[in-house]
Amino acid sequence: MKPRRREISILFYVSRRVLPIMLPVMLVAFILIYKFTYRTIQQQQQQNIRNEFSFAHQTLNNRLSVTRGWLKNLAQNGMIVNSLVDPKGAGEYIPQLFKTLRVPGPQSGGSIKLLDFQGRVLATNNLNAALQLNDNWQTKVINGQYYETIDHNGLIMAEPIIINGLPEGTLVLLFDTATLAEFLKVSSVSSYLFVTDAHGYLLFTSPDQNYFHVGHDYNENHFADWAISKQHINMNSELMLVSAQKNNIAFQAVTDVQYAMVTFIIIAFCGIFLSISLVGRSVAAILANVSDQLRVLHTEKNLSKRIKLSTIKELAGLERSYNELAEELQDTTVSKEYIDTLFDGMPLPVFVVKPDGFIVRTNESALSLFKDTNSEIPTYFQEMILHDDLEKHQEELIKHFAYTPPNAGDTFFYLARKHNRYEMEMRLIAAKGDIKPYILSATSLKDHKNKLTGYIITATDIQDRKQQEKEIMNLAEQNTLMARAIEEIDLGVTISDGRQPHQPIIFCNQAFMDISGRKMEEILGFSCGFMQGAETDPAVIQKLSEAINNQNSIRVEILNYKKNGEAFWNELSLNPILGHDGSLKYYVGIQNDITERKRVEAMKKEFISTVSHELRTPLTSIHGSLGLINDLYDSDMPAEEKELLSIAYRNSERLKFLVDDILDTEKLEAGEMRFYPKNHDLLDIVQQSVQLNTIYGEKYGVKFVISDDIPDTRIYVDKDRIVQVFANLLSNAAKFSKELGRVDIGAQLGRCADDMVRISITDYGDGISDDFQKRIFTKFAQQDSSDVRKVQGTGLGLYITKKIVESHDGKIDFKTKIGQGTTFYIDLPCC
Questions:
Q1: I want to staple 697 with a disulfide (CB 3.0 to 4.6 A). Which of 115, 436, 663, 734 is the partner?
Q2: Cα dist from 605 to 502, 610, 618, whole Å
C-alpha cells in the first residue's frame, strides 16, 4: 500500500510557493531600480554639466570673438588711421572719439588706448586705467600680428594699425581684474562655472557659491567629490572654462528613492501576505466544494452528471473545463466502442504492431486469413511475409539507400520509419500455406514526443488486380494486332477529331493513302472534303454534313477524286465515337474503292434490263397463246397433252412474274420508279387487294378474313403500288398457311404514331426460321422447305414490298413464332 501524502493547507502552499519567489523578486527589483536611478541621475548630472558647460563655452567664445572683431575693425577706422599720419590734426577729434568708445556687449568696463611704437598713449577712453605691457607685445605688433595676454592683472588685447602695409601704431583693449570678472560673467542653473588663466588663477566664479573666489588659485584636489568639465575657451586663448557640481546635491534624489523603495517593499510584503491569506481561505472553501462534488461523481460513476461551482470567471472556466472533459470522456467512451466496432468490421486485414513487429492487435479480416488453419496467427508480422520477398527488398535497400537492415524483417519497417507512411507489394503466407500478393501499407505511430511507438498495417489483396493487369496486357497485345491489321487491310481507315471545326484527320492507314493518292503530310490536319470534286453529288455531301452535325452514323456511295484528278467511287462509312458525357470525340471513316464493283453492277443491270425487256414481249405472247389454247381445246384434248399444256402455262406465268419483279427491282434501285400518291380510303384498298387475291387463296385452300374494326381513315399513297404490296403479303400468307387455314387482315390507328395507321396480315403457318429472318427482305431470298408449293416464286417479292413501303415514308416488319404463324405489319401515313 502506498503511503499517504502529507496534506497541507492552501494558505501554507501558496505562501510557500509565492513568498520565496516574491522576496528575491523584490530585492532584485530594489537593486535594479536603485542602479537604474543612480545611473540615470549620474547621466543626467553629466548631461546637465555638459549642457551648461557647452552654453557657457559658446557664450564666452562668441564674446571674445566679437570683441576681437570689434577691435580689429576699430584699428581700420579711417579717423584713427589718419591720427597716426597727421598727429597734430588728430588732436582735435581723436580725444573726443575715444571718450565715446564703448566695448560691445553688456559689459562696458574695458579701457581702450591708442599707442605709438614707443608705447606712448596717444588717446584713451579711461585715463585712470593703468597699462602694464611686457616686451612681447611690441614684437608681435611690429610684425603686424594680433597680441593677447591674460593673467592675474587682467586681460590685454592689442591690434596693430596698418598703414601702407606697415604697422604704425596699436589699439589696446584692457580689462583689469574687476572689469574682467564682469566681462567673463556667465549664468548657470544647476552647476557652478569658473574661468582661470593659464596658471590656474581664478578670473571668474559663479556668484551663488561660497567655495571659491576670484583671485584664488584653482586646485582640482578641492573638487574630489565634484563632477567637473573643463576646456579652453578657444584655440588661441589662455582662458580655461570649468563647470562643476557637488555629487551630494545631485544624488539627493537617489537617497530619497532608497527610503521610498524600502517603505514600499515593507508595505507591499504585508499587503501580499494578507491577500494570500484571504485568497487562500476563499480558494480552500471553493476547492472543498469542488472536492465534494467530484467525490459524489466518483461514487456514482455517472459521466453524464455535471458540476456547478461559481459565477467567478476562473471557477466558471474550471466548471466548463471539467464538464467539457466529462463530456469528451463520455464521447470518447462511445467513440472507442465505435472505433473498435469499425476496426473489427473493416474489410481489409489490419495489424497493429510494435516497432519490432510484435503483433499487438488484429481485426476480424486479419484473423480470417488463418481461419482455415489449425495454427494461430504469427507472433511477429514479418513472419507472415514470404522470405524471398524480404530478401529481395533487403537487396534494394542496400542498393538504393545504402542501408543494411539488421535483419530481413526490418526491411519493411525501415521504409515506413523513413517516410512515415509507405506502401510495398509483398506476398503473405496465409491459411494452408496459400501465398497471395498484397499491397502492405504501413503508417508510423508516434507519441507526443515524436517517439516511434509502433505501426498500423493494412493488407490489400491484389490477386484479382494482378489478373486484371494480365488481361490488360493481353488487351494491349490485341490492340497492337488490331493496329497492325488496320495498317494491312485494303480498306481505307481515317480518324477525325470531332472536337475541332471541320473535323481534321488525325490518323490514316496506308490503304487510305493509296486510295486518295496522297502522302501522310498531305492528309493529316485536313478534312476529307479534299477528295470531293466537280461531279460529286451535292445531295450526298448534304447527307454527310447532316449526319456529322447530328452525330449519326452514315453509309453512302460518293464520287471522289484522287490527287491526280482520277475519279473513283467511294463506299464511305462514318461512325461517331462519343465520350462518357455524350459529347463527340472522334469520327471513324471507312473508305472502300468500289469503282470496279459499280462497273460490274452497271453491266449486270444493263444485261438484266436488256434480257428482261427482250423476254417480256415474247413471254406475254406465249403466256396468252397457251391460255387461249387451254381455254379453246380443254374438252377435246387428251389428258396427257392437257397436263403438258398446263405445265407450260404455269411456267410461262412464273417467267412473266419473274421478269416483272426484275423490272420493278431495277426501277426501285435506280430511283426510276414513279409514285403517284393520292388520298384513298383504307378499307377500299384492303377489300380490293383481298378480292384480287381470293382466287389465289382458294388455290391453296386458304380464306382471307378482314377484321370488322378496321378504322374509317384515309391514307396518302399510290394505290396501285400499295395494292401490289398487299398482293405480295397476301400471296405469301396463303402460300405458307396450312390447308383449309385462314389469313386475318386488320388495322389500328396510332399504334406506332399519332399520324400513322398499322395494317397487319397474319397467317397461322409454321413461322419463319431464325436463319431466314435475317435475310427475309433481301433480293432472291427464299425459305428452305420440303413443300414444293412454298418455294415457288422469284424471291424478290418482299424486297420490292419493303422498298415500296419505305418510299411512302412507311415501315414494314414482322413477328413470328415457330409452329404458330407470322404477322407482317405495315405502318403508313394517314391524311
A1: 734
A2: 38, 8, 20
